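Much of our argument rests on the idea that a fold can be written as discrete symbols. The amino acid sequence and the backbone structure tokens for this protein are reproduced below:

___
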Amino acid sequence: LVSLWIVVARIPLEALWIFGGANYGDAFTLAEGTQVGYLYGAREALPACLLLFTATRPRKRWTLMTVLPFLVVGLLFAGTGGRTRVLLLVISAPVFYYLERAERPKLWSIALVIFLIFYVVVGGIGFYRGTDLGASRAIGTDQYGVTDAWDTFVEGSQLAVSTSLVVRYVPDPIDYFRGASFLNLVTQPIPRFLWPDKPGTLVVGDAFAGLWPRGTAMPFWVVFYLNFGPFGILAGMLLLGLFSRWLYNLYRRAPEDIPAQVAVALYFPWMVHIYGRGGLNPGYLIYSVIYVFVPVLAMSWLMRRRAQKRQEIVADHGVRALGSR
């Protein structure tokens, strides 16, 4: 699907590697057709697919060949400026490693992952990728250090700024959306060739474009407040709690279950994502659940079906053996 996205969208290969100086917006500027968005979103499913392939390998050993696919896909994600996708790999792979081995991570491994997130993923990728203003940086030309990593981290994670501004300006002078942004869940999946007059996607950040700095993050609870006020936050957090509890119980019932391990491993980076960018559009929030977790749930269903089929075959052979005596 990712390869199909590159071909259908007519994306030049140099645009896939923004560290070389290609602008971050090139891929979107050159993309054509309403189908591009669906294929583009398929990238979200790659971490889940990689973990499932890894989890079902014959020998439960972590070798260079086990890690190599994660490095290759992580390089692709980094080259397209997708920090969220890199986070899905950087966090989920170590978490799954320890879940599979039924071990607790050491303090140094936790510190290493935190350093990679801060310095490489959030800071490094954010610093070198091109911006909406057309600026771009390249490795070897623009120097990058800890100060740059911190500045980039702060610029891309101003959760308090967006939250406080929304509370300040809503419901006066900006009225509650009263569920309008949730209509994206219904309208956004419909291609424009089926609905030429489809209204444009309502992005929450557009209403506050002149109030906060470019790149300000918007956590997922903001969209619930903006639509329904304080009670919306209560309802949104309740839904998140129910989903989290369901995943937790799924794992606790069978800690050795492969889909359950993968789902829990993906849950932590997914939470980081929605806390940072989940409030811009409720549609993105739901689609992230679909792309990230549906492959795992599909694998879980297939594994249960296969086990059930095996039991039916064994039972059928047993009945036939008794009948032949």
